[in-house]
Give the backbone structure.
Amino acid sequence: MDLKSNHAAPVLTDPAAPINKSRLGMHSSLFPCSPPLAVLPPGIFLTIPRKKTGILDEFRSSIWLDAMKSSSPPPKKITKDVSNEYSPTDADVAYNAWMAKYPSAIASFEQIANHAKGKRIALFLDYDGTLSPIVDNPECAFMSDAMRANVKKVAKYFPTAIISGRSREKVYEFVRLTELYYAGSHGMDIMGPVREHISNDLPNCIRSMDEQGKEVNLFQPAGEFLPVIEEVFRSLVQCTKDIVGAKVENNKFCVSVHYRNVDEKSWTVVAQRVHDVLKDYAHLRLTHGRKVLEVRPVINWDKGKAVTFLLESLGLSHCDDVLPIYVGDDRTDEDAFKVLREGNRGYGILVGSAPKESNAAYSLRDPLEVMEFLKSLMTLKK
Ligand SMILES: O=P(O)(O)OC[C@H]1O[C@H](O[C@H]2O[C@H](CO)[C@@H](O)[C@H](O)[C@H]2O)[C@H](O)[C@@H](O)[C@@H]1O
């Protein structure tokens, strides 16, 4: 299949029109109505990108720039006047209204605990900005030992998975806990427990070994894209090398172009260069993360689908007594929040202190609060 074409512009949002799924080399049993995989999301299919020229015109350039600017707002500061008396600003009022809509998962813990009564919790955790603080250098986004210890403890009581935009190998290097399940590349690379009916039905799901030599299922729905992603990674490195502060990260099934350390005046240059490379790849799309442009295959797969897949792999689908909880800070985590909200199954918890619309039900300010929340969760152990 030709994953490269010179007639399309990179897709900025998920377009709708499906094309023949067999072109992706996937077995038809991946698709709906084939029990026992009926809980898996509807088919993984490619979509037809909009035809466009290779020029990032002024209008679209400003849309990119707005999205880039809003992608990682600074944490909320409480305003005090000079006499040190609290004087709420419009921003404070907006923040309080936002907190009323997305209450603190710590302050509302009793409510969460009541809902969890008689249920088995399944925990899903994002990595960057959730378990580790956001830092300038992505190579240095280490989680604290205290956080690692708490994740380890919580995983003793509840099945726990990390779902990250990083490559699975990289996120494992950071977390280094063997008792967890890992999904890298925004859920496009999942290592989960062995479940015969899944590996038998999905050609992109193979039996493999984890670091400890334990048998696992490895599901890589975008496997066919590996060479294209490699090629795009190299092109992006090449074409951004003269932009001071730009950094391109290979996340295996997706590529991150970081502009956190690029002077804001050059953000449009970053956008233009990424656009210039992607215009030749009709089957890649672009999403925005926290001061990062993320290039990924146009397949119908995201963190939400990864949650559904893992619940199925863990034998926790179709169970009324399971309460999935997903904690994440980024736009890509919204897909997972949405799956939980729409299925009325559990809670999304948004990490952050800058008001934004979300499909989450609760919020936590930062990774420190995430750790406090994990400690509280442990009080619910059976
Ligand atoms: O899904 P996640 O685990 O949250 O991964 C999303 C991206 O996280 C990383 O980038 C972000 O964190 C960096 C370190 O704090 C920060 O420098 C960067 O600005 C953030 O966007 C990671 O480097 C990306 O590859 C992930 O896609």
